[in-house]
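Sequence design from tokenized structure. All designs in this work follow the same two-part layout: the structure record, then the generated sequence. An example of the structure record is given first.
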């Protein structure tokens, strides 16, 4: 009888030590969800800013660099200020 209790105890310890460890959930990859406004800005950017050259990635330039570029490109792309605000907000959200 005693031997069975010991056997069960050992089996229990054995099973416990072999049970899969609870793996801590992988910290979520930070993915910036675009708000509808930013998504609209991205669409404007994609549709208007790749007509004359390839679409530049927002991360190609810093915010300081983008400012004068966007002023120059607004004239080239013939976009109004409201559209340009949307495009700028999208670009800055990606930096
Ligand atoms: C009518 C044509 C045209 C359109 C539309 C246009 N671009 Fe350009 N873009 C150019 C030309 C030409 C250059 C290179 C000469 C220059 O820098 O002025 C250029 C250069 C650039 C550069 C590189 C600047 C640098 O200093 O290296 C960026 C970034 C850029 N454009 C972004 C944009 C964005 C954002 C838009 C949309 C708002 C846009 N472009 C729309 C013609 C255009």
């Amino acid at each position: 009888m005693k031997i069975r209790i010991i056997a069960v105890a050992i089996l229990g310890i054995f099973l416990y030590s072999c049970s899969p460890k609870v793996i801590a959930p992988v910290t979520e990859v930070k993915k910036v969800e675009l708000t509808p406004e930013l998504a609209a800005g991205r669409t404007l950017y994609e549709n208007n800013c790749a007509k004359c050259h390839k679409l530049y990635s927002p991360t190609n330039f810093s915010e300081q660099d983008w400012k004068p570029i966007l002023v120059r490109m607004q004239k080239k792309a013939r976009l109004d200020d409201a559209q340009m605000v949307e495009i700028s907000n999208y670009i800055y959200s990606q930096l």
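The chain has one domain: 2-93. We note this feature because it recurs in several other targets discussed in the main text.
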